[in-house]
Amino acid sequence: MTSEVPPAGTPETHKTEPISIEQEMKTSFINYAMSVIIQRAIPDVRDGLKPVHRRSLYAMWDMGNTSDKPTKKSARVVGDVMGKYHPHGDASIYDTIVKMAQPFSYRHPLVQGQGNFGSVDGDAAAASRYTEVRLFPYAEALLEDLDKETVEFVPNYDESLKEPTVLPSKIPNLLVNGTDGIAVGMATKMPPHNLREVCAAVNRFLDEPSVPVEELLKIMPGPDFPTGGILMGVDGVKNIYATGQGRIVVRGVAEIEESEGGNRGDRIIVTELPYQVNKAQWITAIADMVKDKKLDGISDIRDESDKDGIRVVFELRKGTISAVILNNLYRFTALESGFSAYNLAIVDGTPKLLNLPALLGNFVHHRIEVIRRRSEFDLKKCQERVHILNGLLTALASIDKIIAAIRGSDTVDNARIALISGFGLDELQANAILQMQLRRLAALEQQKIVDEKSTLEAEILKLETILASEENIKDEIRRETSEIALKFGDARRTEITLDASDLSTEDLIEDKTVLVSITTANYIKRMDLDTYRKQRRGGHGITGMTTKEDDVVSSVFAAGMKDYLLCFTNIGRVYWLKVYQIPESSRIAKGKPIVNLLNLKDEVVTTVIPIREFRKDRYLLFATQLGQVIKIPQDEFSFPRSTGTNAIRLRENDKLVDVITTDNTKEVVLSTRFGYGLRFHEDTVRIVGRGASGVIGMRLRGNDTIVALTLVEKDHLLSITDAGFGKRTEFDDFRGHGRATMGVKNMQVERDVVIHSRAVADTDEIFVMTASGVVIRTSVNSIRITGRGAKGVKIMRLDEKDKVIGVAIVTPEPGVEADPEPPAPVSPE
Is 575 helix (H, G, I), strand (E, B) or coil? Predict the structure, then answer.
């Protein structure tokens, strides 16, 4: 496409030149893009600076605003930079100077600021008329030797002054302070590193330019951020060093302060944040997540940060697992942040992606050139001065004749000619003699000239040695680099640890057995077993839960912290819940509504069973209230879903009462509320899939119902009634009946009913809980062994109108012996 547009004010007869708009757009855009890349956004690989940074530092250096002088108003510095070298907005220049003065932005700040220069909360710096600045000594190391023709100078924007194209830069600033910038079609983002480590890497590269990245990684193990933090793993660092790009993960530093005496919850105290994280925004985001219940367990957040550092305190609710909450802070907030590095820099006027050896190589090449040019400049100056001193010494050796020649000349020009022709001097030496003061004729002054000449000759020899070979120049780089590391280097701030990206929440959980209880109103809680001290049977127990008047405890069981809880509802659906996800509560607390933990829909949880793993060769055996049994492979439930799924199909007016884990090789016992039991082999129950209704397990008498299902294992069958009576029975007392029969009498009941039957070992302990939340903990061996049909002994004395509703069996850990406890002297009632 072309356009023919006559110039304004030109007669129509003027011939126009056709222009391709496509080509014009392409050319103009490329020119614009390259201008942004080279002149604004991407740093030079040699000094690690963008033009605005370089011009700001040079302007401060040029105006004498150095570290040994008083600070100057920032507005004055900004005006000098803008008026002399950088004809852009004053805001961009001041923002650049501010950032170079922020210790949380630069690993080694280049500008020393006095006044308000912002904060990690994102607060803006004060206006330039209120703040003052000067160069940091570190920045002066970048500018040293500018006056020795070490770098090229070019005219400024109006050609009234000259400015350097690059700084001599004794320091590999690009690696030390890093950079970031967005250009047109490309961007750069480089992390900062520790100065001592970078200098050591430079020296290692000088020794062996082909040094492998693995060797450099031993010297520079990773970035070192000004805000500290913890670098998670080195795989990302290896990629960055080897290819020039990669991603690393940085965590803030936090510690858990455990509560003393259990009077309050634990605390999480954060003292360091990942690089470039805005603290105020981070705290606000966490507060919103707590409000929206996306982060649970945090009761209060306080920012106690001051001039000495960051301190953010998270108060945790009592009973929560502090390690889990801290892990969630890492997972869901900026307390763990990724840093995607892309090492793009300008090399010979072209943007290039550079790995670590290339970055070191370009810096070394620059320093070789700077030291060569500096040495040549110094050598030339020394030789010129020695030449002058030789002339002065010649004059002093023939001072009378020199004076006579000068006095015999009528003009200075004639005197110069007389000195040149009569004493073998050149014009420079003759001029120096003519300008020599009379005090130089003193003996001490003459000796000073001799000493100065000797010093300069030694310096000349040193400079000639340096220039004799590139290896000698490299030795000079090694010396200067080591001096820089010693002068400005400090200890590493960012800790490097093993990669914990695959660390799950469960890895932070202590795998211990706890007591879980659930009420008819679906309040659930967990408690440590140590909450309840062991008592002799027949005691009153202690309060285990405070419930509402219309809410009673429906079940209690023991489970491991890492167990899954399969929560079955009244409509036959199943939901998954990890035990550690249940908030730990005090002994008398009512717990937390289970609807806050599960996505229930117009349904209530009726049965909960713990399970550690889902195996193909294991099964779940279900028993319903009306005597149905269903056997389903465990792996049918191995894919947890947040919305739950159908488990079994219940018949009308039926509900699930018990579930056990089997291997299809055992016998089982079904127990009823009226004290009957049926023993049969589980292989008579066919294996079905989820959603099946099963087969008849036991035929019931009248309005009797099933209350429990247990395997024939361990030592005895323990049965407990709602009136607090219990007994142990030998399994051999139950004759083997076929499935779908009515069974035999197991326990004598009158006004009470059996609420639980389970196989127990003599070393087990039981936790018995009543509807009002009272719990007693006692040993199984304190309960008498009796025959079928006996009523048993009193396990727990109940208050009026209270009744037992749940029993949890706990097996002591291996190596822990049960406490010997004789049966209490309580007669059967």
Answer: strand
Mean pLDDT by 10 residues, the chain (829 residues): 52 70 75 69 92 95 95 96 92 95 95 95 94 96 94 94 95 94 87 96 94 94 95 91 94 87 80 95 94 88 92 88 86 93 93 95 96 95 91 83 84 85 84 79 77 92 94 95 95 84 62 80 78 52 48 70 86 86 73 81 81 87 92 88 86 86 91 92 91 90 92 90 91 82 89 90 85 83 87 86 81 51 36
Report the alpha-carbon distance of residue 322 to residue 254 in Å, rounded: 11
Do residue 414 and residue 469 come from a single domain?
yes
Report H helices in 110-170: 137-143
- CATH no. for residue 683? 2.120.10.90
Alpha-carbon torsion (461, 466, 472, 475), positive or negative: positive
CA separation for the pair 677, 399 (Å, rounded): 135
Residue reference for tokens 């919305």: 643
pTM: 0.69
The order of strands in the sheet holding 298-303 is: 253-257, 267-272, 312-316, 298-303
Q: Integer distance in angstroms from the first to the last C-alpha of the chain?
A: 107
- Nearest CA to 141 among 165, 177, 170? 170
Query: Are 34 and 128 part of one and the same domain?
Result: yes
For 321, other C-beta atoms within 10 Å of its C-beta total 20
Residue 669, SS3? strand
Write out the two tokens for 816. 């822990």
Residue 228 lies in a domain: no
* Domain extent for 323: 253-334
Q: How far apart are alpha carbons 522 and 605 in whole angstroms?
A: 7
In a domain, 205, yes or no: no
Three-state DSSP at 58 gives helix
Contacts of 23 (CB under 8 A, 6+ apart): none
Q: Is residue 467 part of a domain?
A: yes
Catalytic-role residue among 32, 130, 241, 564: 130
| Same domain assignment for residues 774 and 635 | yes
157 counts as catalytic: no
Pairing assessment for the beta strands 230-232 and 495-497 based on DSSP bridges: parallel
